[in-house]
Design brief:
mainly alpha, about 65% helix, transmembrane transporter activity, TRAP transporter small permease protein
Length: about 180
């Protein structure tokens, strides 16, 4: 029996877990793109306002800092899904594809565990920052807000890496 035969036909015959992780990563990356676009508009408006003699948007640099943290966290799952991390295959390039697939699976499991540990500690950091009540200087934004998308990104990346570990590699390639 072929592996693809036991999965439903939706999602191009891919396993449902990969269909959902693909959707999750793209929704989070889309949210990250919206954040970057919104902050770009805000900075543009602030610069134009300053150039025409009006007071710019107070704390616009704080928005840039916070939005970079937001976007970075939200793009992590898509990077994991597409295996966009740095890979050094100098030592495995000569090995048979079956061996390299198993080595890749081991590294995917290591990524999954690493993301899960990172997510765990970021949740604790988020709770500590929230309890401490630290805020940005000009806009008085709670600093723990920056942890939320990072937790989502690390958690989503962990789920995706675990899914890539348990599903055969022919289904985890980009685009199919």
């Amino acid at each position: 029996m072929q592996f693809g035969a036991i999965w439903p036909a939706h999602g191009g015959g891919r396993p449902p877990v990969l269909v959902w992780t693909d959707r999750l990563s793209r929704v989070l990356a889309g949210a990250g793109g919206i954040v970057i676009f919104a902050v770009a508009l805000t900075v543009t408006a602030s610069v134009i306002m300053r150039n025409i003699g009006l007071r710019g948007i107070s704390g616009d640099f704080e928005l840039v800092e916070m939005s970079c943290a937001f976007a970075a966290g939200l793009f992590l799952p898509l990077c994991q899904l597409t295996k966009g991390h740095v890979m050094v295959d100098l030592f495995t390039n000569w090995m048979p594809s079956v061996v390299t697939a198993q080595i890749d699976r081991i590294w995917l499991l290591a990524f999954a565990i690493g993301w899960a540990i990172l997510c765990y500690f970021m949740i604790h950091g988020l709770i500590e920052m929230r309890d401490y009540g630290d805020r940005s200087m000009l806009m008085s934004l709670p600093l723990w807000w920056a942890y939320v998308p990072a937790v989502l990104g690390a958690g989503g990346s962990s789920l995706i890496a675990f899914a890539q570990t348990i599903v055969p590699s022919k289904f985890t390639a980009v685009g199919g």
